[in-house]
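Technical annex, item 7. During the second reporting period the consortium partners agreed on a shared format for inverse folding records so that results from different sites could be compared directly. Each record opens with the tokenized structure and is followed by the designed sequence. A conforming record, contributed by the partner at site C, is shown below for reference.
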């Protein structure tokens, strides 16, 4: 079947470059695009998606025509699919949204950092309250807390005391945190892991 009669510019793009593509090229002439787009897409057929698009499999010529008619770019977003998936979109806007999404993911990862609080088996009440306040602030900031009791030398004989201390911490933080892991002895350390309740409920 003959390809649809799409006007081809001197650059090889159907109908010439879209206004969006021109803006993109002016800012990145010396750089390769992060995705294959428009005439750089080599597949003979593609699965087309996008706003105001009838999702389906199209010949590359027809997909390019649709993108051109909407003054948008044809962007290959899943090159390993069969056939490859392409989106009709403003490529500059597409890159902005991808960057924004990565930034949000990075922010969420930073919010889920594990903060450690260390105790000794003979931690006194004043020190306990001081560290409890730190743990409470970490939980409020959305961080996971790993509290542990370190048993130095022969203090391992007081492991029950360490367990009671960690359970007391969990009880004091029960309004804002939930227990992910009950006190568990690993070598000379006994761990308790707490998660923010608000985060777990999202």
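Designed sequence (site C submission):
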């Amino acid at each position: 079947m003959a390809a649809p009669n799409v006007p081809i510019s001197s650059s090889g793009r159907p109908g010439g470059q879209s206004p969006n593509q021109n803006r993109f090229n002016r800012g990145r002439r010396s750089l390769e695009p992060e995705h294959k787009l428009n005439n750089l897409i080599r597949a003979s057929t593609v699965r087309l998606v996008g706003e105001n698009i009838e999702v389906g499999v199209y010949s590359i010529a027809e997909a390019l025509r649709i993108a051109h008619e909407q003054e948008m770019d044809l962007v290959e977003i899943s090159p390993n699919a069969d056939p490859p998936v392409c989106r009709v979109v403003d490529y500059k806007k597409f890159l902005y949204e991808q960057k924004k999404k990565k930034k949000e993911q990075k922010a969420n990862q930073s919010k889920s950092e594990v903060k450690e609080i260390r105790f000794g088996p003979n931690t006194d009440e004043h020190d306990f309250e001081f560290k409890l306040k730190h743990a409470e602030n970490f939980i409020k900031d959305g961080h996971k807390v790993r509290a542990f009791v370190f048993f130095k030398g022969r203090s391992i004989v007081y492991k029950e005391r360490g367990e009671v201390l960690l359970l007391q911490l969990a009880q004091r933080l029960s309004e804002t945190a939930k227990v992910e892991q009950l006190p568990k002895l690993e070598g000379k350390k006994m761990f308790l892991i707490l998660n923010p309740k608000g985060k777990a409920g999202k």
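Residues 8-15, 23-31 have pLDDT under 50 and may be disordered. Residues 19-105 form a domain with the Ubiquitin-like (UB roll) fold (CATH 3.10.20.80). All partners now use this format for quarterly exchanges.
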